[in-house]
Amino acid sequence: MLLYDHLVANKEVIIVPAPSSPLNQGPVLPDFECDSPSSAELDHHVAALLSTQLDLARTFCAESPFAAVLHQRLLVLQRIFHAVSTKYHDKDKSANLAIVLHLAYMAYALFATRTEDTSPFNSPVLCNEVLHTASEVVRNLPPLSLANESQITALGAQSLQEVTRFLRHAALPASGADSEGQFLASELLLELALQRGSLIYLLEWIDMALCASCGKRSDTSKTSAKITSSVFLKAMSKMRSTAGGDALDGKPWYNVVPDEDGKILLYRAAMCLMEELVNLACDYTRSCLGSERRESQSTSTCGSTVAEKCDVYVCGSNSSHQVAEESQEKILVPRLARAFTQVQQVEAGQYCSFIIHTNGTLSACGKGSYGRLGLGDSNNQPQPKRVVIDGTVKKVSSSKGSDGHTLALTDDGKVFSWGDGNYWLIVLFF
């Protein structure tokens, strides 16, 4: 390995000759020609021979080419992780890189280091232990820890892609893995798909589950592909709560009934996940079309206002309290904005937000420089505050790329403007 050779050349790794082993001497046996040994002595000597053979086998395995290559790869990965953690001190980034490198080690240990005569699935206990450990680590990460790919290095992204490819192969019956290994591979692949937070990875898992259910199994048990019920339900509960829905709380869901071993059919899990994705898409579509439906149901007179209120969900930057949250940290998942009440329409501006209420009044919050909030000063406003406008506000439009200016249209056709006035502007309200 080239990287390992560099570590040796730079004296970061020092090769120490293996100590001489006294195994050639073997256990000390009595002279059977003199006295006949008792049964207890025979048992003692047999145990000594077995212990010596076990030590010899362990020494041989530790000095085999496979173990040597595996040890070299582990040293290289440890060196890479040390360099990355030293350079990047952000806790979240370090956690993401740690899990990516841990999974990369799993892939190298079980997949990349196999030789022509050695397959990783010939040691199912080792494979299953590593898969189980990786699943526990991913399951305990905060939601969407791997969603922001810009915070993952090129090496980490490539390792994650290779691990995903390996897990998909391991979950299929044709991989040669035992049933437990296939269960663990499918579960880890699902956890990674949820952590990456993209629809494409969930659809890829569904495709894998259907392929695994239809494929022919290599073992003689002929057991259909399954997944642990508790793991699947916890994953779905996490996805639903992250999307803003109610958690499952251990209740029956989509008629998922586990068998006596606590597992469900993999194709049934795929259908349940697909149904949940359809429901989330329908909810999102209804939220997007809600304002259009309310507008179409209202009368054509300008004096009419929408009486029905709607909930507002916010996400993104809150550096200037533009989403009226107490903490100024980034909001990665849409969150219900409790400070926005009696809302008819919202408009996001440059570091600010505007709310048209059901009674036709207008409120603003966020950054106040250049008078962009229309509150008579340039102070920041952490909570929505009413903008004084003569008339009932019908629509509002705020700039996104300049220093901040806003226009508001009232029901009697008047246009009010405020904010930065250094540029000419033409706006058409439809």
Automatic annotation (TrEMBL):
Signal peptide as annotated in the record: none
Entry keyword set: Repeat
RCC repeats: 360-412
Pfam families registered for this protein in UniProt: RCC1_2
Repeat is among the record's keywords: yes
PANTHER family attached to this UniProt entry: BTK-BINDING PROTEIN-RELATED, E3 UBIQUITIN-PROTEIN LIGASE HERC1-RELATED
Protein's name according to its UniProt entry: E3 ubiquitin-protein ligase HERC1
Organism: Periplaneta americana (American cockroach)
